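Q: I'm building a small set of examples for a reading group on sequence design. Run inverse folding on the following structure and report the sequence directly after it, with nothing in between.
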């Protein structure tokens, strides 16, 4: 139940994050930001706009939600249906062996 809720939250966060990124103004410097251009990624004053701060917050929530989902799915993957079947078989088998009538073996000549 909780993984389903977190998965729905993950999908909503992705949609909001894509919208927030697409609404931001393009800096039009392309790969120049990584080659020592005069403009930095967020400008000289840092991420001052509301959309930049909202994008950072939504991105942080997305990462936290992704880590939480990964942890929960890894915990669920450690439990196996076969383990449950083996436990049930070990409990039922000794009781059935005690109540079953014994059949005498036929001797061959």
């Amino acid at each position: 139940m909780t993984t389903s809720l977190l998965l729905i939250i993950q999908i909503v966060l992705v949609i909001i994050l894509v919208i927030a990124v697409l609404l931001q103004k393009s800096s039009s410097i392309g790969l120049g930001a990584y080659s020592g251009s005069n403009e930095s990624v967020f400008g000289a004053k840092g991420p001052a706009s509301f959309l930049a701060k909202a994008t950072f917050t939504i991105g942080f929530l997305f990462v936290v939600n992704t880590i939480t989902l990964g942890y929960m799915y890894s915990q669920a993957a450690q439990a196996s249906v076969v383990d449950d079947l083996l436990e049930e078989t070990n409990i039922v088998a000794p009781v059935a062996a005690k109540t079953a009538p014994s059949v005498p073996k036929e001797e061959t000549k």
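The chain has three helices and no strands.
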